[in-house]
Amino acid sequence: MRWNLTYVDDISGEYKFVGFKRSTYKHAEFSVSGDCYTEEILDNYRVKFVFGEEEMKIPKVTLLAKKKALYEGHPLCMVISGDRYSVEDRLEEVDVDYREVNGPLFPEIPDNVIYSKSHGRKGEAETSMSLHLRAGRSSPAPMEPRVIAVRFTGDSILVHASTQAPTVARILIAEMLDVPMHRVKVDVPNVGGGFGAKQDLSYEELSVVALAYELGENLKWVETRSEHVQNSQARDQVHLVEVGFTKEGKLEFLHDDITYDTGAFPLAWSGISPLFVTLSTMTSAYSFDFSYNVKAVLSNKPPQGAYRGFGRPEAVFVMERVMDEISRRTGIDQIEVRRKNLRNLDDVGDVKSVLEEIERKYKEFKEIYGKGVGLAFYVQYAGPNSKLMIEKEKSRIPGYDCVRAYLDLDGWVVIKISATNQGQGMDRAIKNLVSKELGYEKVRVLLGDNEVKGYGVWASRTMLTMGNAAVIAARQLKEKVSTLGDWEEVSKMMLTQPWKVMDVSADACYETEDFVGTVSGQISVVRGDCTGVKVERHFIVADVGVSGDEEIVKGQLMGGALQGIGGVLYENANDGVEFAVPTSMEAPTFEVKLFHTPSRTPTGVRGVGENGPTGAYASLCNAIRDLGLECNSFPFPRGERS
């Protein structure tokens, strides 16, 4: 069989190409001279935020920098040319004069704080400690950077985009252009990886759409690798933690002073939502009194967006460093400390078996290696529903997804979903679930459909929402067909005996009643010293519920864990063009153990997409700590000894 994989950059058509002249200063007033489109031509286009603004100070964000650059790499203006190579020449011809400035980024927010909140009061305990923990910036760095192509067909605006959420992109574009949604179609072929970065439409992508609409030109932008690393960044939190615990290893209280570095301004969709996910994840596994002071601040860095895990890895990193230190300071076994502090966990899988498996593997590794062994225990929650998204998070994006299923005239069952393919194999997994439900193999899944309501690939939700909706729709199809004959017979009847049946189709929507949890653990084995560390072994255990495709699930867990390893040892957004990601040469020997306790959803599935990185940062830093080195921040600062 021949596979033709088409990505956005492969789509043919007559386009002019766009390039961005970017600031070389972190904070400077500027003036541009040369043939370049500045903010003035786009001044009438405004991006509406998806997240709630009630408790936040939202700055007035423009598509391009307006008179003042706010970070190095901030787009100042746009050039257009006939091909990508001449675009670079045109950019060289544009001159920029800078005058460095100090002070707040936006005059309406003089202290640069856009959000602050306090919760609870610091407790008391017989023993206490403090930890200064930092999650540094990385970049999702997918195989394919951002690509967007805009063309006009009659009265319609056709946008080819490499995006995780075409329906949300459609909403943002229609609102920005002030046109009805039916005039906007967002087409997404294969996506060469997203990892959260392509959840948001960047301001560059939206600028291309706005300029194309303003000029009536077909325009295309292909982001370079260096542009992506410089401008698509995430994970920037500092936690000043005070912990109270007993000599028996019971965590009594945890107080956290958290600073979330938003960058120059929030992105239209993700906003500061990773911070809220961090806060909710802090108490996901253990029982203790939690209090915090939190603030989100603006800085002269690129806007922080989504990266796989979306605030979960930062929380688990904090909690598992705390658990590791309580074990060390009390002399109580690492597993026992975690077992003592478990909260009542409901519908997360087989907690007892997962803990026993972690304990077995941890003892095995300690016997073999002695030092350099670290673990993380956690619960990854997935699938936020509409009530949570709209009422609590004040988002305009709901938590449900819909599916359209129908029997085609050739006997194939077709499942239409809005999710895009980023390499996760979700189409194959959903096909497997539907085929099993129907007892019929001729099933195909069509991705990226604009006409079914659905809100994209994020929060490990695709199988929970679209997978369950697909099976519900399949059950309805099966019921209709069962009274008429088998699948092949009924498909022929739609042509030969339409008076008996003209159409066999079903529409179904689904969202979870509550978060669905996946109880999990990871163990890292490292070798090295302050001059360098290498991961040799890595073990993952998770109760994933019913899996649509077990090998894909294992691959998701290993790939996500390798991203966490990269985030600790290799990936540093400050490295610019020297930014490095781990390859197969740096990957450890992986071992994965799965349990399959069904969730309380129609299919019994659980979310796993963000599970891998969620635990890997913590287990790896605890392994480095077991070597006698400090690992209270990542990327790992070499040269520090405890």
TrEMBL record:
<dbReference type="GO" id="GO:0016491">
    <property type="term" value="F:oxidoreductase activity"/>
</dbReference>
<keyword id="KW-0500">Molybdenum</keyword>
<dbReference type="Pfam" id="PF02738">
    <property type="entry name" value="MoCoBD_1"/>
</dbReference>
<keyword id="KW-0560">Oxidoreductase</keyword>
<dbReference type="InterPro" id="IPR036856">
    <property type="entry name" value="Ald_Oxase/Xan_DH_a/b_sf"/>
</dbReference>
<feature type="domain" description="Aldehyde oxidase/xanthine dehydrogenase second molybdopterin binding">
    <location>
        <begin position="355"/>
        <end position="573"/>
    </location>
</feature>
<protein>
    <submittedName>
        <fullName>Glyceraldehyde dehydrogenase large chain</fullName>
    </submittedName>
</protein>
<dbReference type="GO" id="GO:0005506">
    <property type="term" value="F:iron ion binding"/>
</dbReference>
<dbReference type="Pfam" id="PF20256">
    <property type="entry name" value="MoCoBD_2"/>
</dbReference>
<feature type="domain" description="Aldehyde oxidase/xanthine dehydrogenase first molybdopterin binding">
    <location>
        <begin position="108"/>
        <end position="342"/>
    </location>
</feature>
<dbReference type="InterPro" id="IPR016208">
    <property type="entry name" value="Ald_Oxase/xanthine_DH-like"/>
</dbReference>
<dbReference type="InterPro" id="IPR046867">
    <property type="entry name" value="AldOxase/xan_DH_MoCoBD2"/>
</dbReference>
<dbReference type="InterPro" id="IPR008274">
    <property type="entry name" value="AldOxase/xan_DH_MoCoBD1"/>
</dbReference>
<dbReference type="InterPro" id="IPR037165">
    <property type="entry name" value="AldOxase/xan_DH_Mopterin-bd_sf"/>
</dbReference>
